[in-house]
Amino acid sequence: MGYAKSLLTAAGTVKIVSDDMPEAIEADHVRLRLATASICGTDMHYFRHFANAGFQLDYPVSLGHEACALVEDPNGSALERGQLVAINPVIACGTCEHCLSGDINMCPTKRFPGSATTVPHIDGFFRDYFDFPAKCLRPVRDGVDPDHLTFAEPLACAMHSINRAGVGAGSKVLVVGCGPMGLLATVGAVSKGAEVHVSDLKQGAIDAARAVGATEGFVINRDDMSKLSGQYDVVVEASGSPHGYNQALDSVRKQGVVAVLSLIQPSEVPINLHINTLKEINSIGSVLFTGEFEEAVSLIESGTVDFDALIAGQFSVCETQVACEFMASGDAVGKVLIKPAA
Ligand SMILES: [Zn+2]
Ligand SMILES: [Zn+2]
User: Is residue 123 part of a domain?
Assistant: First the structure.
Protein backbone atom coordinates (compact mmCIF):
# COMPACT_ATOMS: atom_id res chain seq x y z
CA MET A 1 0.00 0.00 0.00
CA GLY A 2 1.73 3.20 -1.18
CA TYR A 3 1.18 6.43 0.73
CA ALA A 4 2.57 9.99 1.04
CA LYS A 5 5.08 10.63 3.77
CA SER A 6 6.90 13.86 4.66
CA LEU A 7 10.52 13.51 5.75
CA LEU A 8 12.71 16.16 7.37
CA THR A 9 16.00 15.45 5.58
CA ALA A 10 18.03 18.45 6.82
CA ALA A 11 17.45 21.75 8.63
CA GLY A 12 14.77 23.66 6.68
CA THR A 13 14.15 20.86 4.17
CA VAL A 14 11.13 18.57 4.05
CA LYS A 15 10.91 16.03 1.21
CA ILE A 16 7.77 14.12 0.23
CA VAL A 17 8.34 10.45 -0.50
CA SER A 18 6.03 7.63 -1.45
CA ASP A 19 6.40 4.82 1.05
CA ASP A 20 4.83 1.39 1.50
CA MET A 21 3.30 0.18 4.74
CA PRO A 22 4.71 -3.18 5.83
CA GLU A 23 2.48 -6.14 5.02
CA ALA A 24 2.34 -7.29 8.64
CA ILE A 25 1.30 -5.08 11.56
CA GLU A 26 3.39 -5.47 14.72
CA ALA A 27 1.67 -7.24 17.65
CA ASP A 28 -0.42 -4.92 19.88
CA HIS A 29 -0.28 -2.20 17.20
CA VAL A 30 -3.12 -0.77 15.13
CA ARG A 31 -2.90 0.50 11.54
CA LEU A 32 -4.12 4.09 11.34
CA ARG A 33 -4.99 6.61 8.65
CA LEU A 34 -4.19 10.22 9.57
CA ALA A 35 -7.26 12.39 10.25
CA THR A 36 -5.59 15.64 11.40
CA ALA A 37 -2.15 16.43 12.81
CA SER A 38 -0.73 19.72 14.10
CA ILE A 39 2.69 21.34 14.26
CA CYS A 40 4.30 21.74 17.69
CA GLY A 41 7.06 24.12 18.78
CA THR A 42 9.25 21.04 19.16
CA ASP A 43 8.71 20.20 15.47
CA MET A 44 9.80 23.75 14.66
CA HIS A 45 13.07 23.31 16.56
CA TYR A 46 13.80 20.20 14.46
CA PHE A 47 12.74 22.02 11.28
CA ARG A 48 15.10 24.92 12.02
CA HIS A 49 18.09 23.05 13.48
CA PHE A 50 17.63 19.29 12.76
CA ALA A 51 17.95 19.15 16.57
CA ASN A 52 16.04 20.15 19.69
CA ALA A 53 17.36 21.02 23.15
CA GLY A 54 20.76 19.50 22.32
CA PHE A 55 19.34 16.29 20.77
CA GLN A 56 20.51 15.89 17.18
CA LEU A 57 18.59 13.75 14.67
CA ASP A 58 20.76 10.91 13.32
CA TYR A 59 18.85 10.52 10.05
CA PRO A 60 15.71 11.84 8.27
CA VAL A 61 12.38 11.39 10.11
CA SER A 62 8.75 12.33 9.68
CA LEU A 63 7.97 15.02 12.24
CA GLY A 64 4.71 15.28 14.17
CA HIS A 65 3.50 13.90 17.50
CA GLU A 66 0.15 15.70 17.74
CA ALA A 67 -2.52 13.88 15.75
CA CYS A 68 -5.74 11.95 15.67
CA ALA A 69 -6.50 9.17 13.21
CA LEU A 70 -9.04 6.73 11.84
CA VAL A 71 -8.60 3.02 12.47
CA GLU A 72 -7.65 1.31 9.22
CA ASP A 73 -6.95 -2.16 10.64
CA PRO A 74 -7.70 -2.88 14.33
CA ASN A 75 -5.34 -5.89 14.19
CA GLY A 76 -7.20 -7.83 16.86
CA SER A 77 -7.69 -4.87 19.25
CA ALA A 78 -11.10 -3.84 20.60
CA LEU A 79 -11.21 -0.86 18.20
CA GLU A 80 -13.43 -0.80 15.13
CA ARG A 81 -12.42 -0.01 11.57
CA GLY A 82 -13.25 3.65 10.79
CA GLN A 83 -13.26 4.67 14.48
CA LEU A 84 -11.74 8.10 15.24
CA VAL A 85 -9.08 7.90 17.95
CA ALA A 86 -7.00 10.43 19.89
CA ILE A 87 -3.32 9.44 20.00
CA ASN A 88 -1.23 9.66 23.16
CA PRO A 89 2.25 9.82 21.58
CA VAL A 90 4.06 8.78 24.78
CA ILE A 91 4.94 5.09 24.51
CA ALA A 92 5.80 4.44 28.16
CA CYS A 93 7.35 1.18 29.35
CA GLY A 94 4.48 0.53 31.74
CA THR A 95 6.60 -1.32 34.30
CA CYS A 96 9.09 1.12 35.89
CA GLU A 97 8.41 2.87 39.23
CA HIS A 98 7.34 6.08 37.43
CA CYS A 99 4.93 4.29 35.10
CA LEU A 100 3.49 2.34 38.02
CA SER A 101 2.82 5.58 39.93
CA GLY A 102 1.21 7.13 36.83
CA ASP A 103 4.07 9.51 36.03
CA ILE A 104 4.57 8.28 32.45
CA ASN A 105 6.34 11.55 31.57
CA MET A 106 9.21 10.52 33.88
CA CYS A 107 9.63 7.03 32.36
CA PRO A 108 13.36 6.74 31.50
CA THR A 109 12.77 4.39 28.55
CA LYS A 110 9.63 5.99 27.09
CA ARG A 111 9.59 6.37 23.30
CA PHE A 112 8.24 9.33 21.36
CA PRO A 113 7.59 9.70 17.60
CA GLY A 114 9.41 12.31 15.49
CA SER A 115 12.03 12.93 18.18
CA ALA A 116 15.81 12.62 18.48
CA THR A 117 15.40 11.62 22.14
CA THR A 118 14.16 8.20 20.96
CA VAL A 119 16.91 6.07 19.39
CA PRO A 120 16.37 4.57 16.91
CA HIS A 121 13.98 7.39 15.94
CA ILE A 122 10.32 6.59 15.29
CA ASP A 123 8.65 8.40 12.37
CA GLY A 124 6.06 10.93 13.47
CA PHE A 125 2.54 11.53 12.17
CA PHE A 126 3.02 13.90 9.20
CA ARG A 127 2.22 11.03 6.80
CA ASP A 128 -0.97 9.40 5.56
CA TYR A 129 -0.61 6.02 7.29
CA PHE A 130 1.21 4.70 10.34
CA ASP A 131 1.02 1.89 12.92
CA PHE A 132 0.90 2.75 16.62
CA PRO A 133 0.45 0.81 19.91
CA ALA A 134 -3.20 0.10 20.71
CA LYS A 135 -2.67 1.14 24.36
CA CYS A 136 -1.94 4.73 23.20
CA LEU A 137 -5.25 5.10 21.33
CA ARG A 138 -8.35 6.62 22.91
CA PRO A 139 -11.60 6.23 20.92
CA VAL A 140 -13.88 9.28 21.08
CA ARG A 141 -17.63 9.76 20.88
CA ASP A 142 -19.29 10.23 17.49
CA GLY A 143 -19.26 13.73 16.06
CA VAL A 144 -15.93 14.96 17.47
CA ASP A 145 -14.16 17.17 14.92
CA PRO A 146 -10.68 15.76 14.12
CA ASP A 147 -9.43 19.35 13.73
CA HIS A 148 -10.25 19.79 17.43
CA LEU A 149 -9.11 16.36 18.57
CA THR A 150 -5.56 17.00 17.31
CA PHE A 151 -5.30 19.49 20.21
CA ALA A 152 -5.45 16.60 22.73
CA GLU A 153 -1.67 16.21 23.20
CA PRO A 154 -0.67 19.88 23.44
CA LEU A 155 -3.74 20.61 25.59
CA ALA A 156 -2.69 17.76 27.92
CA CYS A 157 0.79 19.36 28.23
CA ALA A 158 -0.79 22.73 29.09
CA MET A 159 -3.21 21.10 31.56
CA HIS A 160 -0.31 19.35 33.31
CA SER A 161 1.30 22.72 33.98
CA ILE A 162 -2.04 24.16 35.16
CA ASN A 163 -2.57 21.19 37.50
CA ARG A 164 0.96 21.33 38.90
CA ALA A 165 0.43 25.04 39.58
CA GLY A 166 -2.71 24.23 41.57
CA VAL A 167 -5.00 26.41 39.45
CA GLY A 168 -8.61 26.14 40.62
CA ALA A 169 -11.92 27.99 40.70
CA GLY A 170 -11.31 31.66 41.46
CA SER A 171 -7.52 31.58 40.87
CA LYS A 172 -6.18 34.76 39.30
CA VAL A 173 -3.94 33.61 36.45
CA LEU A 174 -1.71 35.47 34.00
CA VAL A 175 -0.51 33.64 30.89
CA VAL A 176 2.65 35.23 29.45
CA GLY A 177 2.87 34.54 25.70
CA CYS A 178 -0.09 33.57 23.49
CA GLY A 179 1.55 31.13 21.14
CA PRO A 180 -0.27 27.80 20.83
CA MET A 181 0.86 26.65 24.31
CA GLY A 182 -0.16 29.92 25.96
CA LEU A 183 -3.55 29.73 24.24
CA LEU A 184 -4.03 26.15 25.44
CA ALA A 185 -2.92 27.09 28.97
CA THR A 186 -5.68 29.72 28.79
CA VAL A 187 -8.18 27.01 27.75
CA GLY A 188 -6.99 24.78 30.62
CA ALA A 189 -7.12 27.49 33.29
CA VAL A 190 -10.54 28.73 32.14
CA SER A 191 -11.84 25.14 32.31
CA LYS A 192 -10.81 25.07 35.99
CA GLY A 193 -12.85 28.20 36.71
CA ALA A 194 -9.90 30.60 36.94
CA GLU A 195 -9.94 34.27 35.93
CA VAL A 196 -7.35 34.47 33.15
CA HIS A 197 -5.44 37.46 31.82
CA VAL A 198 -2.84 37.21 29.04
CA SER A 199 0.07 39.14 27.57
CA ASP A 200 1.74 38.97 24.18
CA LEU A 201 3.59 41.14 21.67
CA LYS A 202 0.71 40.82 19.18
CA GLN A 203 -2.89 42.02 19.50
CA GLY A 204 -4.04 39.17 17.20
CA ALA A 205 -2.73 36.53 19.62
CA ILE A 206 -4.51 38.27 22.50
CA ASP A 207 -7.75 38.31 20.50
CA ALA A 208 -7.43 34.51 20.09
CA ALA A 209 -6.94 34.13 23.87
CA ARG A 210 -10.05 36.23 24.48
CA ALA A 211 -12.01 33.96 22.11
CA VAL A 212 -11.27 31.03 24.45
CA GLY A 213 -12.09 32.82 27.68
CA ALA A 214 -9.31 35.25 28.71
CA THR A 215 -10.96 38.35 30.17
CA GLU A 216 -8.11 40.82 29.78
CA GLY A 217 -5.07 41.13 27.51
CA PHE A 218 -1.93 43.27 27.66
CA VAL A 219 0.16 44.10 24.61
CA ILE A 220 3.86 44.19 25.54
CA ASN A 221 5.62 47.44 24.54
CA ARG A 222 2.23 49.16 24.28
CA ASP A 223 0.51 48.69 27.63
CA ASP A 224 1.95 49.55 31.03
CA MET A 225 3.09 46.14 32.34
CA SER A 226 4.22 47.51 35.71
CA LYS A 227 0.59 47.66 36.87
CA LEU A 228 0.52 43.83 36.77
CA SER A 229 3.15 43.70 39.51
CA GLY A 230 2.19 41.24 42.27
CA GLN A 231 -1.36 40.78 40.94
CA TYR A 232 -1.58 37.04 40.18
CA ASP A 233 -1.80 33.79 42.17
CA VAL A 234 -0.30 31.89 39.25
CA VAL A 235 1.67 33.08 36.23
CA VAL A 236 2.18 30.63 33.38
CA GLU A 237 5.36 31.36 31.40
CA ALA A 238 4.56 30.29 27.82
CA SER A 239 6.66 32.73 25.79
CA GLY A 240 9.96 30.83 25.90
CA SER A 241 11.75 34.11 26.52
CA PRO A 242 13.82 35.09 29.59
CA HIS A 243 12.01 38.45 29.42
CA GLY A 244 8.76 36.52 29.80
CA TYR A 245 10.13 34.71 32.84
CA ASN A 246 11.15 38.04 34.38
CA GLN A 247 7.64 39.36 33.67
CA ALA A 248 6.25 36.29 35.46
CA LEU A 249 8.47 36.85 38.53
CA ASP A 250 7.25 40.46 38.69
CA SER A 251 3.54 39.76 38.08
CA VAL A 252 3.08 36.90 40.53
CA ARG A 253 2.00 37.75 44.08
CA LYS A 254 4.18 36.99 47.11
CA GLN A 255 4.25 33.20 47.72
CA GLY A 256 2.50 32.66 44.38
CA VAL A 257 3.37 30.13 41.68
CA VAL A 258 5.26 30.62 38.43
CA ALA A 259 4.58 27.67 36.13
CA VAL A 260 7.19 27.35 33.40
CA LEU A 261 5.43 25.66 30.50
CA SER A 262 7.90 26.80 27.83
CA LEU A 263 11.43 25.58 27.20
CA ILE A 264 13.47 28.75 27.77
CA GLN A 265 16.63 28.43 25.69
CA PRO A 266 20.01 29.53 27.11
CA SER A 267 20.70 33.22 26.46
CA GLU A 268 22.65 36.25 27.71
CA VAL A 269 19.53 37.89 29.20
CA PRO A 270 19.80 37.89 33.02
CA ILE A 271 16.97 36.27 34.96
CA ASN A 272 15.97 38.11 38.16
CA LEU A 273 16.26 35.10 40.45
CA HIS A 274 16.55 37.28 43.57
CA ILE A 275 12.81 38.03 43.17
CA ASN A 276 12.18 34.30 43.38
CA THR A 277 13.73 34.37 46.85
CA LEU A 278 12.36 37.68 48.11
CA LYS A 279 8.75 36.83 47.19
CA GLU A 280 9.06 33.14 48.13
CA ILE A 281 7.82 32.14 44.68
CA ASN A 282 7.18 28.50 43.86
CA SER A 283 8.68 28.11 40.40
CA ILE A 284 7.60 24.82 38.86
CA GLY A 285 8.47 23.08 35.63
CA SER A 286 6.35 20.63 33.69
CA VAL A 287 7.03 18.28 30.83
CA LEU A 288 4.45 16.34 28.81
CA PHE A 289 1.59 15.10 31.00
CA THR A 290 0.35 12.25 33.16
CA GLY A 291 -3.40 11.79 33.61
CA GLU A 292 -4.10 15.01 31.70
CA PHE A 293 -4.35 13.27 28.33
CA GLU A 294 -7.70 11.84 29.42
CA GLU A 295 -8.70 15.22 30.89
CA ALA A 296 -7.87 16.94 27.59
CA VAL A 297 -9.77 14.44 25.44
CA SER A 298 -12.82 14.72 27.71
CA LEU A 299 -12.73 18.52 27.47
CA ILE A 300 -12.54 18.31 23.65
CA GLU A 301 -15.41 15.78 23.60
CA SER A 302 -17.53 18.15 25.71
CA GLY A 303 -17.59 20.58 22.76
CA THR A 304 -17.41 23.60 25.09
CA VAL A 305 -14.16 25.07 23.72
CA ASP A 306 -13.98 27.07 20.46
CA PHE A 307 -10.87 25.41 19.05
CA ASP A 308 -11.66 26.90 15.62
CA ALA A 309 -10.42 30.22 17.06
CA LEU A 310 -7.04 28.54 17.64
CA ILE A 311 -6.49 27.23 14.09
CA ALA A 312 -4.02 29.30 12.05
CA GLY A 313 -4.18 27.36 8.80
CA GLN A 314 -4.44 23.95 7.12
CA PHE A 315 -1.99 22.21 4.80
CA SER A 316 -1.75 18.71 3.32
CA VAL A 317 1.05 16.28 4.18
CA CYS A 318 2.57 17.17 0.77
CA GLU A 319 2.73 20.83 1.88
CA THR A 320 4.54 20.15 5.18
CA GLN A 321 7.47 22.33 4.07
CA VAL A 322 5.20 25.35 3.42
CA ALA A 323 3.29 24.67 6.64
CA CYS A 324 6.54 24.71 8.68
CA GLU A 325 7.70 27.89 6.92
CA PHE A 326 4.35 29.57 7.73
CA MET A 327 4.73 28.53 11.37
CA ALA A 328 8.36 29.77 11.39
CA SER A 329 7.33 33.15 9.94
CA GLY A 330 5.70 34.13 13.23
CA ASP A 331 2.56 35.23 11.35
CA ALA A 332 0.52 32.21 12.46
CA VAL A 333 -1.82 32.75 15.41
CA GLY A 334 -2.76 29.37 16.88
CA LYS A 335 -2.02 25.93 15.51
CA VAL A 336 -1.06 24.97 11.96
CA LEU A 337 -2.84 21.75 10.94
CA ILE A 338 -1.61 18.98 8.64
CA LYS A 339 -4.22 16.94 6.75
CA PRO A 340 -3.83 13.71 4.74
CA ALA A 341 -2.48 14.07 1.20
CA ALA A 342 -4.99 11.64 -0.31
ZN1 LIG B 1 3.86 18.99 21.09
ZN1 LIG C 1 8.33 3.37 32.49
Answer: yes
Q: What is the average pLDDT score of the chain?
A: 96
Question: Which ligand is located closest to the Cα atom of residue 106?
Answer: 2
Whole-number Å distance, alpha carbon 54 to ligand 2 midpoint, is 23
Kindly state whether residues 179 and 258 are assigned to the same domain: yes
Question: Ligand 2 center to residue 100 CA distance, Å?
Answer: 7
Same domain, 115 and 162: no
Q: What is the dihedral of CA 106, 30, 36, 90, to 10 degrees?
A: 0
With respect to residue 293, please indicate whether it lies within any of the assigned structural domains: no
Whether 51 and 161 map to the same domain: the answer is no
Express each pLDDT in 210-222 by its tens digit. Answer: 999 999 999 999 9
Ligand nearest to the CA of 97: 2
Task: Write the Ramachandran bin of 295: left for phi over 0, alpha for psi from -120 to 50, otherwise beta.
Answer: alpha
Residue 112: inside a domain, yes or no? Answer: yes
The ligand whose atoms approach the alpha carbon of 114 most closely is: 1
Q: How many structural domains comprise the chain?
A: 2
**Cα 74 to Cα 276: distance, rounded to the nearest angstrom:** 51
The residues near 19 (Cβ < 8 Å, ≥ 6 apart) are 2, 3, 5, 127
Q: Is the pLDDT of residue 268 over 90?
A: yes
Range of the domain at 164: 157-285
Residue 144 sits in the same domain as residue 28: yes
5-53 pLDDT, tens digit per residue, is 999 999 999 999 999 999 999 999 999 999 999 999 999 999 999 999 8
Neighbours of ion ligand 1 (CB under 5 A): 40
Q: What pLDDT is attached to residue 2?
A: 80
Over 90: is that where the pLDDT of 292 sits? yes
